[in-house]
Give the backbone structure.
Amino acid sequence: MFETIFIENELKQNPRVDSILSRFKNSRIKYLERYDSVWGRVKKPYLSKRTNLNLFLANKKGQLVKEAPNAYGVEGEKHFYFIHAFNCIYECQYCYLQGYFNSPDVVLFLNHDEIANQMQTVLDQHPEETVWFHAGEFSDSLALSHITGELEAYWDFFEKNPRAKLELRTKSVNLKRLVHLKPLDNVYASFSLSPESATKDIDLKTPPLKARIAAIRKAQKNGHKIGIHFDPVIYKESVFEEYNNLFSSLNDGINLNEVSYFSLGVVRFTSQVYNEAKRNYPSSPMFAAQFIKSSEDIVRYPRTMRAWILNKLKDQLIGHGVKEGKVYLCMED
């Protein structure tokens, strides 16, 4: 998977590094003082990840936990995300990482204890509130979890802090570590789903829809809390029919009543990411509908169109037996 693995010098004796290297015996190994002395210093084309992908193993410095934007998660509670990795092995055409970083190379941060300590600090600053911590803002939270071994480190924190909630955002079906961990009432495996056509044509390199539904069913049967994101919704004439079919397939495959929450959101970009995505995928069907640019530099469908799409999909979900209070609109005021 990785042509070269770059390792920070301070991690030479780290047992997590030895475990990771044992899985990539054909990769070249290089040591360096700081990962960001190489990673991102020179612009590397996003689509080079198809033929030349490298891995960096590092300790993240500075702020490891950041407050999430409004409407990021379940309404009425505090939301933060923690930085455990940069970049993703998948290639979704709308992915904002293609215009966010200078490099598609994957960075895995190994100082999970320090990340947990910062989460504790944030939790202590909000002593009377439920606080969410989200993994997967800059990467997929489960795709490489069998390699990183990080879930165990975070499980201990959330078992000791029931007022804190963990969301593992993923498009992966990699449950190798998760199913061996004790289910916790405050930890949610949250899967992003798109209709079958979008999964094939736009969510490139991601697992098929049937495999994702099977993974949700397996995680659910193992006792883990589940969240589901229908985000981003990409408009086309058959969008409502395709999502209705998706909801039906989901209803046949899992227990919808036991899903903790659902989110709905439309495709959106910053102008920089929009331009990068247009260069990378000029014929993508996601550009067929009208976009406008807001004063906040967000490129997305007009407000009335977004409201029409999201409210109709929400009504469809409710029609499949989902309680209205379990559905929230992502990144919409």
Summary: The two ends are 40 Å apart (CA to CA). The mean pLDDT is 96. The chain has nine helices and 18 strands. Residues 58-329 form a domain with the pyruvate-formate lyase- activating enzyme fold (CATH 3.80.30.30).
